[in-house]
Design brief:
The structure is a homodimer of 221-residue chains. Helices cover 42% and strands 22% of the residues of chain A. The first copy, chain A, is built from 8 helices and 12 strands.
DNA sequence: TGATCCACGTCAGCAATTTGTCAGGTTGAT
DNA sequence: ATCAACCTGACAAATTGCTGACGTGGATCA
């Protein structure tokens, strides 16, 4: 999953970015409001982590402009501790959650999982599709209850597909969210990756929609 | 909107209940875990406000049982416990949001609005015409309930025609929207394509309006 | 430092599908 | 009847995706 991190404090930004990458996300970081607005408005992220205290355009203003433009991406805002008025403003401006500074990185990750799964319409942080179960908190994937070891790229692929189960996901979209770069389809690396995942998790988990992309059927009644 | 409030402290419960009613909600209040679980499992609420510190069955256990039973109702957790680890637990157990005590009633209302807003709108876009049904999310087309495999061009043709069902669509328009190029009609590729779709989905789905274009009759009551 | 393993990209070959073209055949309006 | 519009079956070319094999670079450990 691809995230946008908006944080002007370089030190905090670096720390958070490292933790997010370790948790398996593809992360892009910007340090000011204008850049944040542009990226959030033109690119497609799984979620955005937005610091309110920004130089230049204020974080709240950025968020409002995104929402005004119809962007529904989940947004987690970082706020100074204590001011409930600011929190209420943030939530009513369209934030999906807030986290007061300073925070534990574990809580950031949990809240991130929360808003991401909420935006996908899930209620639990475990996702089941056919014989396969994904536990995001433990970064664990099981096949008929048996744990399966996946490489980082394989895990990201599975996680993204399960989050978007029930709909066709294009190769371009997978490129962006698994690798981070959205371009150069001069290679079949993605197809090879899909093949490797199929070998581990069974051939019927991921269906091919020739000419369109891939689909993990939704098995939720 | 109908809410369930789960809070064992009668005094807090009464205050919150009054505020919620003032904000226009219909509120039902219960004071222990068992009752909460039963109500939440059998009734249909717009959202549930759940205190974690309950006598009897713990709030977290209640929440987990709801989620295990497939209840996706938005849940807002209240707790006095401040440790980040327990907050992480609550969120990962499937809570949609979390509010630490003590809280301002304004913030409760804002978060409530937020989770309710989020839970709305996850319907998959479907179009029905005669015996044919189009599910755009899954890019799936079914004929009398039986899935039919369509090629990319065939799918685009069907999708466009169903989107504009009830009116005649010219060949030029189809050329532009299926192929992209609105080129000269020097080939009969489009006619061949229509023929292939008819073979798969039945001859009566697409009517020919000789000299004008094609028509999918609107069968919406 | 060197041996080893693993993740992952690349490549070539293959099989299946897709799709444009074309050569008649039908249909319907006038 | 005539003619343009449209349909159909067949075929070949192009596209797409899968697979096994191989190579490279980084991490780990003796």
């Amino acid at each position: 999953m691809r995230l946008l991190l908006v944080e002007d404090d370089r030190r905090i930004a670096a720390d958070v970015e490292r933790a997010l990458r370790a948790a398996g996300y593809v992360v892009e970081t910007v340090h000011n409001g204008e850049e944040a607005w542009f990226r959030g408005d033109t690119e497609d992220y799984g979620a955005i982590i937005l610091d309110l205290g920004l130089p230049g355009m204020d974080g709240l203003a950025v968020l409002k402009r995104w929402r005004a433009n119809g962007r529904t991406v989940p947004v987690l805002i970082l706020t100074a501790r204590g001011s409930w008025a600011e929190r209420v403003d943030g939530i009513d401006a369209g934030a999906d959650d807030y986290l007061p500074k300073p925070f534990r990185i574990e809580e950031l990750l949990a809240r991130l999982r929360s808003i991401v799964r909420r935006s996908a319409g899930h209620a639990s942080s475990r996702i089941v599709a056919g014989d396969v179960e994904l536990d995001e908190r433990q970064m664990k994937v099981t096949l008929r209850g048996v744990p399966v070891a996946l490489s980082p790229l394989e895990y990201r692929l599975v996680a993204f597909l399960l989050h978007h189960r029930g709909r066709v996901v294009s190769q371009q979209e997978l490129d962006e969210n698994v690798y981070g770069h959205g371009e150069d389809h001069e290679s079949n690396a993605l197809e090879v990756l899909v093949g490797r995942v199929r070998k581990k998790l069974g051939a019927d988990l991921i269906e091919t929609r020739r000419g369109f992309g891939y689909l993990v059927p939704d098995t939720t009644p």
